[in-house]
Amino acid sequence: MKRKLGRSGIDVSALGMGCWAIGGTFWRDTTPVGWGEVDDDESVATIDEAIERGITFFDTADVYGAGHSERVLARALAGKRHEVVVATKFGNVFDEDSKVITGSDAAPEYVRRACDASLRRLHTDYIDLYQLHIGDLPLERVDDLLETLERLVELGKVRTYGWSTDDPDRARAFARGEHCTAVQANVNVLQDAPDVLATAEELNLACLNRGPLAMGLLTGKFTSDTVLPENDVRGPNAPEWMSLFKDGKPLPELLERLEAIREVLSSGGRTLAQGAIGWLWARSGQTIPIPGCRTVAQARENAGALEHGPLSESQLEEIERLLGRG
Known about the structure:
Elements: E1 2-4, E2 11-13, E3 17-18, E4 27-28, E5 31-32, H1 40-52, E6 57-59, H2 68-76, E7 85-90, E8 92-95, E9 100-104, H3 108-122, E10 127-132, H4 142-154, E11 158-164, H5 168-174, E12 180-186, H6 194-203, E13 206-210, E14 245-246, E15 249-250, H7 252-265, H8 272-283, E16 287-289, H9 296-303, H10 305-308, H11 313-323
Parallel strand pairs: 3-6, 4-9, 6-7, 7-10, 10-11, 11-12, 12-13, 13-16
Antiparallel strand pairs: 1-2, 4-5, 8-9, 14-15
Helix pairs in contact: 1-2, 1-9, 7-11
C-alpha cells in the first residue's frame, strides 16, 4: 500500500515508523519524555525489519533522545538512504550530553543551525520532510518561519516541510507555504481529530498520525494492573500533557472503551494494533500512521496491517456506534 505525502507527490508506504522510542531516555527538567532504556542493536534490526516488510517512511525528531534517535536511524539507513523517505523535526533546544531539553526556539538563525545539525546526525545531505515541533507557536511567527523553510528548500537541504500541531488553524497558516505538505497530529480510534483531518483533506496535506496506537493502549498489552517505570513518558512521573495514563497506569475508562471495540478491530484475522491502523486508513485518505516500535516483533506486527488494509465502511460505523460518537 502506498499513499502520497500530501501535495508533494512523494510516494510513501501507507504505514510509517515512528522513531521516538528508539531515542531512549531524555528529560524536560526532571520529567521523563522518552520511553525508557533501549537497545541500539535491536533498534537497527527493527528498522531493517520495517524496510524488509515494505515500510519506506521514517519519522524522527532532533530532540528524541537528544539527537540519539537521528544517529541510530542514520546507522540503520547506511547504504539505504535513497530507498526511504525521512522526516525529522526542529524547535526544541537540548543538551546532547545531559539529554535534557533546555527550551525552544524557532528563530530563523536557530532553524538553520538545527537543520544542519540534523543533517550531520542523519548522515544525509537532505531531509525529505522537516517539521516544526512547537505545537503552539504563535501564528504571528509563521511568516518568518515559512520564509526560512522555503530558503532551506532552495538550498536543497529540505524537500518539504510541515507542522506537528493539533490545531487546524495553525496547519492552515503553514499550508500557505509552497512546499508545506503535512500536518502531524494525535489521531487514533480512541481520540479522533475531525477538524484536523478535515483541514488536511481540504488542503491536500498528509496527516501523519502520531499516537496511532494510543501510546501502546491499542496493542492490548496493558491491563488495570499495569504500572510503567519512572523513566517512561507514560510512567508515574509523566508530563502534564499525558492524557492516556495516570500514575503510570492506563486510564480505566480507556481500557473499557477498548474492550467495547476489541471484536471489530480484531476481525478478519487482524491483531488489535493492525485493526487500529486499519481504522486510520479508513478514516481518511490523507492519513499515514506512524506507530513507534523498538523491537523486531513490533515492526513485524505493525507491518502486517499492510496485508489487511483499511477497515470497511460498515466497521467504521459500528465502531462509532459502540463508542457513542457521531
